[in-house]
Amino acid sequence: MVGDNKIYEKIVWPYRLLGNLLLLGCIWAMTLGVITVRHNLVGKQIDSLLSDIYAKTAAIGWGLEDVTLEGRNRTSTQAVLEATGLKRGDNILEIDLQQVCDNVQMLPWVKKAVVTRRYFPNVIHISITEKTVKSIWQYKNEFYPIDEDGEIIETEYVPERNLLQIIGEGAPEHFNALLKVVEKDEELFSRLKAANYISKRRWNLIFDDVENGITVKMPEENFEAAWKKLVKLNRTRGILKRKLTFVDLRLKNKVVVGL
Questions:
Q1: Among 42, 160, 213, 220, which residue's beta carbon has the most beta carbons within 10 A?
Q2: CA atoms of 137 and 87, how far apart (whole Å)
Q3: Residue 205 in domain
Q4: Over the stretch 10-28, which tens digit does the pLDDT of each residue have?
């Protein structure tokens, strides 16, 4: 301070900084808007150009001539063709192979699809791997085929051979874990006709005959240990060769049988 009559100027730099920041923000917003509009216009022009190129190249020899299919057994050729949406004369360069593949893999029997382009002649080749039916699920008086992943195949199916029948709510989700254990003993697995998932907690295994076979009541926990006990009892004492109605393995240190 030089003297008592000096008038101090107000500090204005924060306001100037704020004003400059707002101004820069407006400039950036306008710039981005211009760039966006410009890119949209360029994009439209590119799309229009590509459409013209595809139309002209299709007319001079790049049209789709055929669709070939490999690996089909249960899937109909008509279903595959409808799923692809392809038709003769389509520009083979314009076809989205990934989209075609995704559409084919939506078909109920298709597990995996591979789609490739082949030239001279211009062909789209589709190779599919179909699902394998591992079981039949009975639920509310309806029957559904179950694939190797424990998934329901959403289609009509007439069994061509004797398949393990699984029963009960939640059975498909736990089928793979069951199969992983019981397949280890071929003798007992070949006699296993049905598996009933009880109260979404544990399995009852039915051997020899679905209606009049021997029911083995398995525990909720330690399923594999109980299965090994059953295998041992059958080998050493022939427990499943006797005239029994059920074998109860739910108790850890006791086996209960019903004559």
A1: 213
A2: 38
A3: yes
A4: 444 454 555 556 655 665 5
